[in-house]
Structures are given as structure tokens and as C-alpha cells.
Design brief:
Number of strands: 2
Largest sheet: 2 strands, antiparallel
Number of domains: 1
Shape: elongated
Order of helices and strands: HHHHEE
Strand order of the largest sheet: 1-2
Strand content: 5-15%
């Protein structure tokens, strides 16, 4: 995943798919705040940078979140000669 994170600037992502994932995450966080009895902090999903969120998921996300992120990639990732190559479809 570190290798993918390094090439994230050249990888093309389906922005709509990632935005949906961000909105789901912010909604889950709002619900957690409500359960904990904390004041709800307004988080605007539109203000979150897609590439930064993708880097965060690759570093901190669980396997299912990483899989979901990888499914939004439009670029082809080829691992050849112990090196990751990014190709557009």
C-alpha cells in the first residue's frame, strides 16, 4: 500500500465513488458524536481533498476500506520487476 500511496498523484480516481465514501465516513462520525453525547461538529465532505483522503485510507483504513478505494481507481496498476507502474486505461 505504501507503493500505491507514493504514486497516488499519477493515479486517476473516480471522484464520485470517493466522494460517496467520504460522505459515508462523515455520517458515521456524526452518529458516533451523537452517541457519545458530544456536540456535533459540522464536517463538509466537499472540503475534504480526495487524494489526501485516499492516502489516509491506505495508511489507516481497514482492508475493506482499502478494497473499496482500490475499486474506484481508473488507472491500471501493474507490478512488474518489483516495481509498480501506473497506466491509464
Amino acid at each position: 500500500m505504501n507503493e500505491i500511496s507514493k504514486h497516488l498523484d499519477t493515479i486517476s480516481l473516480n471522484e464520485l465513488g470517493v466522494r460517496i465514501q467520504i460522505e459515508e465516513e462523515t455520517e458515521r462520525f456524526r452518529k458516533l458524536q451523537g452517541i457519545a453525547g458530544k456536540t456535533v461538529v459540522a464536517i463538509n465532505a466537499e472540503n475534504i481533498d480526495i487524494k489526501s483522503y485516499a492516502r489516509h485510507l491506505l495508511a489507516e483504513g481497514c482492508d475493506s476500506e482499502k478494497r473499496k478505494l482500490l475499486s474506484t481507481m481508473r488507472s491500471m496498476l501493474i507490478y512488474r520487476n518489483q516495481k509498480l507502474e501506473v497506466m491509464e486505461k
